[in-house]
Design goal:
233 residues, alpha+beta, Arc Repressor Mutant, subunit A
Amino acid sequence: MAHKSGLGFALRRMLGEAPVSGRSPGRGGETVLTNETRLRIFQSLCNRPCSHLRAISREVGVAPPSVLWHLDRLVERGAVRKGRLGNRNVYFPSGMLEPEDPEFLAFVRDGARLPAVLLVMERPGIPQAELVRDCGANSHTLAGLVARGVLEMIKDGRHRRYYPAPVLKQKKESYDKRARRFRQVLLSLFAQDGLSPEAERYDRTFLNVRVTLGTRAESLRLLCNPFALGARV
């Protein structure tokens, strides 16, 4: 019979995963986040969810084969999940996203799309020529964002003007409400892996938490709302 008490069960229940008998914490008692490289990868995925392998590699400064090996450990542990965008795998922390959202978020954050979206959010009604000039997006990128319902385009005489689609605001507001739950997922995961987390600050967008890694303490700043697209880490 599976053991249904303790932090390991509580964490798996929050993540929507069935408890597994005899695996506390992690696979065969392994604690994956006490490894500094894996902790950096996990932090990167919190702050840039739905990143692909090469983007993670650039962010943490570790070669792709090593990053992939660590990602596999995090996925096996249940700390990270894997989605798909086109022909690439993307990764995000477990418990962060609703099942229908990883592919949409990966699309928005991929390549030149995110700078274009952020600029439109900052300057609604921006003309296409100005948008292309200031963020480097091309007409194909903008057409894809409009087709996917991320941006809206309105013709104004000779100009094409771009506005954020309502879905972006709706997603952000929805995830504002569930960010507290994800905060608890993070704290439980860190505690289960023996990192002795101490929450220093939480504002529904970011969690600042102090963890113990070996003989030293480290402060992490982690995004809790994946659709707070303009939030700066």
